[in-house]
Amino acid sequence: MQLTVLVDNNTLIDRYFLAEPGLSFLIEDEGLTFLFDTGYSDIFIKNAQKMGKNLAHLNFIILSHSHLDHTWGLDPLIRYFAELEIEHRPFSRPALVAHPESLTSASAEGFREFGSLISKKRLAKHFDLHLSKEPQFLTGHLIFLGEIPRTNDFEGRLTFGRKDGATEDDNVIEDSALVYKTSKGLIIITGCSHAGICNIIEYAKKICNDPRILDVIGGFHLQNPPKSQIEGTISYFKNLHPAKIHACHCTDLESKIALSQVVNLKEVGVGLSLQY
User: Which of these, 271, 217, 221, 173, lies nearest to 69 by C-alpha position?
Assistant: First the structure.
């Protein structure tokens, strides 16, 4: 399996790609291509083209959750497919995999919209929708985890505005992730980890019946975290003993430094390509 970072908050030195506060990964495995999140704008398309990656024949699009820095790239992707059709160039109709709540709108005071811009009905014109709270096996090795049980008392408790029509603050219940099974252990691929990075890892271990963690890559949602959250997370990773981690996107510098004291923390930026 190859994972390529198309969008992240950071770029790598001497790699001339675009970055933004968002996330998008391209996963290639067993002759299939998977786009995990689309970032905020069209830069995932521009970066992919510069990298020589073909997004015209995606097999799957996977959304980690509804927020703008992970879903607003869907609009330029639809435009990209429309332009291919106008030019009579071939392209595929991918499946879109997500939790049902990932296609909902959300807002907050001072933030008119930060949820999905495109409705389920409109997306169904362009993609084959596979919406489920349950885990979905995309291949024999790659699994969409669905709704993550929140069992830890130190994470997954923060709320972010409200979904349209809701009467309670939103705890981003749709937040999900991927797990890739190998003969040597598991690779966890996250978007923002609103569900809690430790909760995500524990659920992946349960679904795969494998306690070995080779890597965790993606956003850990450690942005000026409460003391109880960062202490609980550091204690968890100290006992987890992953081979390495690639914390990025919504993981602040202080949290990365703290994590680096207990695990093998690697740098992430647009253009990074990992082989597993």
Answer: 221
